[in-house]
């Protein structure tokens, strides 16, 4: 009994000693996670990507803005966040209005930007990666952790699909979080499959779709609040 208690305590201490890395977010594994921000061009594009992800057991992160979620709700009658989660994908906050620089807001102003109709959850990506102590205050106020990225594809600069695939492969490393966007040319099954193949050539694997914390059995809907350690 004494031994068991001792090991429990030391286990808890070890877990709390791990510092949170804003660039890597809750991915403590060596798998690479693709993240798609902003807003898809249409529902078909979005459905293609999430269906393909589930079929291939890939788990991506989607970070739609609140404005985007509202637009899709009005235009198609769907909730993008719920839809993505139902395919075992992860959904994080990306503000309501995508302000150019959250650092120009107060702590309270940042907290407001992180509310509805944006995604209400425990991780969020500040637009353009703008972050400082005040922005962190806003995130803390709504119990959300900022999640940036370790490598960017630069897809938003009008790059071609081939350029985005090459960039993703170039910036990938073990445990990487790769920044991409839903409105750009890398947001389709063809680009994602080619990125995956290039990563595999380098011995890197993508995060898998959600199958519960034990990562066993069938793919199930992912939780609204992400696990603090993704079962990638
Ligand atoms: Zn964005």
Please provide a written account of the structure.
The chain has a single domain, classed as TIM Barrel, CATH 3.20.20.370. It is globular and about 45 Å long. 38% of the residues lie in helices and 10% in strands. The model is unreliable at 1-13 (pLDDT under 50). Helix 6 (133-141) links the parallel strand 4 and strand 5. It is α/β, with parallel strands linked by helices and 232 residues long. The two termini are 33 Å apart. Zinc ion (ZN) binds next to strand 1.
Number of helices: 8
Shape category? globular
What level of helicity do the residues show?
25-40%
Give me the side-by-side strand order of the main sheet: 3-2-1-7-6
Low-confidence stretches: 1-13
CATH topology: TIM Barrel
Percent range for β-strand residues: 5-15%
Number of domains: 1
CATH classification class = Alpha Beta
Task: Tell me the structural class.
Answer: alpha/beta
Q: Can you list the ligands bound to this structure? A: zinc ion
Q: Over all CA atoms, what is the radius of gyration?
A: 18 Å
User: What gap, in angstroms, lies between the N and C termini?
Assistant: 33 Å
Please provide the ordered H/E string of secondary-structure elements: HEHEHHEHEHEEHEH
Average pLDDT, rounded to a whole number, is: 94
Main sheet: strands, sense, barrel: 5 strands, parallel
At CATH's second level, what is the architecture?
Alpha-Beta Barrel
CATH superfamily: Glycoside hydrolase/deacetylase
Question: Would you spell out the secondary-structure blueprint of this structure?
Answer:
Layout: H1 2-17, E1 33-38, H2 43-55, E2 61-64, H3 66-76, H4 80-86, E3 90-91, H5 107-113, E4 123-124, H6 133-141, E5 145-146, E6 151-152, H7 161-171, E7 177-181, H8 189-201
Parallel strand pairs: 1-2, 1-7, 2-3, 4-5, 6-7
Zinc ion binds at residues 37-38, 94, 98, 127.
């Amino acid at each position: 009994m004494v031994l068991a208690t001792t090991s429990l305590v030391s286990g808890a201490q070890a877990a709390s000693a791990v510092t949170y890395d804003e660039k890597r977010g809750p991915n403590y594994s060596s798998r690479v996670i693709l993240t798609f921000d902003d807003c898809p061009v249409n529902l078909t594009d979005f459905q293609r990507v999430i269906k393909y992800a589930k079929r291939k057991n890939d788990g991506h992160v989607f970070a739609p803005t609140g404005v985007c979620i509202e637009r899709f709700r009005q235009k198609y009658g769907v909730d993008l966040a719920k839809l993505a989660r139902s395919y075992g994908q992860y959904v994080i906050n990306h503000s309501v209005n995508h302000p150019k620089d959250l650092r120009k807001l107060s702590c309270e102003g940042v907290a407001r930007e992180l509310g509805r109709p944006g995604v209400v959850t425990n991780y969020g990506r500040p637009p353009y990666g703008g972050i400082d102590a005040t922005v962190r205050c806003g995130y803390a106020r709504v119990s959300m952790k900022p999640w940036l990225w370790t490598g960017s594809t630069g897809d938003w600069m009008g790059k071609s699909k081939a350029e985005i695939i090459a960039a993703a492969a170039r910036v990938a490393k073990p445990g990487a979080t790769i920044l991409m966007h839903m409105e750009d040319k890398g947001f389709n099954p063809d680009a994602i499959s080619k990125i995956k193949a290039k990563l595999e050539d380098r011995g890197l694997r993508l995060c898998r779709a959600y199958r519960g914390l034990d990562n066993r059995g069938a793919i199930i809907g992912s939780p609204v609040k992400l696990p603090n350690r993704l079962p990638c």
